[in-house]
Prior knowledge:
This protein is α+β, with helices and mostly antiparallel strands. The chain is 15% helix and 27% strand. It has helices at 13-23, 30-37, 41-48, 56-66; strands at residues 107-117, 131-136, 145-150, 163-168, 177-182, 187-195, 198-202, 217-229, 235-239. Strands 1, 2, 3, 4, 5, 6, 7, 8 and 9 form a nine-stranded mixed β-sheet that branches. Strand 8 (217-229) and strand 9 (235-239) form a beta hairpin. Helix 2 (30-37) packs across helix 3 (41-48).
Amino acid sequence: xxxxxxxxxxxxxxxxxxxxxxxxxxxxxxxxxxxxxxxxxxxxxxxxxxxxxxxxxxxxxxxxxxxxxxxxxxxxxxxxxxxxxxxxxxxxxxxxxxxxxxxxxxxxxxxxxxxxxxxxxxxxxxxxxxxxxxxxxxxxxxxxxxxxxxxxxxxxxxxxxxxxxxxxxxxxxxxxxxxxxxxxxxxxxxxxxxxxxxxxxxxxxxxxxxxxxxxxxxxxxxxxxxxxxxxxxxxxxxxxxxxxxx
Length: 246
């Protein structure tokens, strides 16, 4: 086991980024985190090695992922970062949040990192950052997060307003329901396929557009769970740790 020693008396924003990335859930590789927040791995490495300081937009996104004050990255303090929402820390039992109840037996709370548009027009919102949603404990992995779907291009497979659970992976297998992000930090969910040697993300509904990874889009991960709300305390859930298909 590797124990990280960290001296906050000389902490820079880059030191703190590396610290929370390696010690606080979700624990992410540089590649996974860079893809999640919309920068290159080299940019993130430059921040963590103190070659350059991260811009405010980056620390704002990181603060949302790890539920810490954005000012903590810059304050030079010695304390471990506090939780903004009061959500559980690593090793703690899940706690209620935003009026939600403690998850039941066999259930787990996953952080909602935002909203994804499944339509031809991607959607970015910040109103749900920091919220939590329940999925089966069988789907638990410390790096996984949830997003809420808006749009109808995946209708019949992922209903409008459903939650999806995402496993971070920039290179998922073909055929899976895949989450991609553009340079504006907007997300879409489509099907990853290979066509004549090129990778393409396609919707179920042919009325919507296809997109190609690399043309302003980066793959973030693949869907392992879908939760469709069906009224008060009722929902339909589907999950597969190997990834869900159309």
